[in-house]
């Protein structure tokens, strides 16, 4: 395990990230130092994250969004689910460096349904750069197949008493919400990967969210990121 005390740090939006060569690329360093990394998601956070928020994040990457939610928006706790085993330790390091204490990082593939109904593991293809990793082998990139444990997203949301779900899972968003029990979740932030899910997947996602009682939050959406908010009908006068 790299020793963060002997490693250079990258500062982005007041947060620290170890300049670990096994994770960092030149492009990632540039995006972080210029403040452009995950900027659409970061801007959207201020519209729905607050002091009582419990967040579940799928595809937690380098821990940027989960750390921002705690440090900049005072979220109560975060639960990160990341399929790439190489990133899980890095996320924990980022949380530790930035004083994030109430966090859980799980190396798993989250699926809807009960745990007893899910396969024990599923194949995941780890690629370089890490953001090209996915359940399907990336095109034109070398990748390594690993078997990753599954976890019931319904149960994770219930255990965390999550009111917010953030999702960046490289195409898995197209069908994830078909049969998912969102429970107390009030906001769902999704990064769309239209090159993977195609127009039919986008339509399916929006229809599933509408069935769950969520509407498209126009002001917080844009640049490939969509915020859905739970609809609360007006009380009768």
List keywords for this structure.
single chain; 12 strands; alpha/beta
Task: Give a quick summary of the entry.
By secondary structure, the protein is α/β, with parallel strands linked by helices. It is built from seven helices and twelve strands. The strands form three sheets. It has a seven-stranded mixed sheet with strand order 5-4-3-9-10-12-11, with helices on both faces.
Would you kindly provide a written description of the structure presented here, covering whatever features stand out?
Strands 5-4-3-9-10-12-11 form a seven-stranded mixed beta sheet, sandwiched between helices. The chain has a three-stranded mixed beta sheet with strand order 6-8-7. It has a two-stranded antiparallel sheet with strand order 1-2. The model has no long low-confidence stretch (mean pLDDT 93). Helices cover 28% and strands 26% of the residues. The N and C termini lie far apart (61 Å). The radius of gyration is 17 Å and the shape is globular. By secondary structure, it is of the alpha/beta class. The protein contains seven helices and twelve strands.
């Amino acid at each position: 395990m790299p020793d963060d005390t002997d490693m250079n740090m990258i500062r982005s939006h007041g947060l620290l990230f170890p300049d670990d060569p096994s994770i960092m690329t030149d492009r990632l360093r540039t995006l972080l130092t210029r403040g452009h990394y995950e900027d659409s998601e970061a801007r959207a956070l201020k519209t729905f994250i607050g002091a009582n928020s419990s967040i579940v994040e799928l595809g937690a990457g380098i821990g940027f969004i989960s750390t921002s939610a705690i440090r900049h928006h005072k979220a109560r706790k975060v639960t990160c689910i990341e399929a790439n085993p190489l990133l899980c330790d890095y996320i924990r390091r980022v949380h530790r460096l930035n004083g994030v204490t109430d966090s859980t990082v799980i190396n798993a593939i989250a699926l809807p349904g009960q745990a007893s109904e899910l396969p024990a593991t599923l194949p995941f293809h780890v690629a370089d750069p890490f953001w090209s990793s996915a359940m399907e082998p990336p095109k034109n990139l070398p990748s390594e197949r690993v078997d990753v444990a599954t976890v019931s997203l319904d149960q994770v949301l219930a255990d965390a008493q999550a009111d917010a779900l953030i999702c960046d899972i490289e195409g898995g968003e197209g069908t994830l919400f078909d049969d998912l029990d969102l429970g107390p979740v009030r906001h769902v932030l999704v990064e769309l990967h239209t090159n993977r899910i195609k127009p039919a997947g986008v339509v399916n996602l929006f229809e599933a969210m509408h069935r769950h009682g969520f509407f498209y939050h126009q002001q917080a959406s844009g640049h490939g990121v969509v915020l859905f908010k739970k609809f609360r009908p007006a009380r009768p006068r």
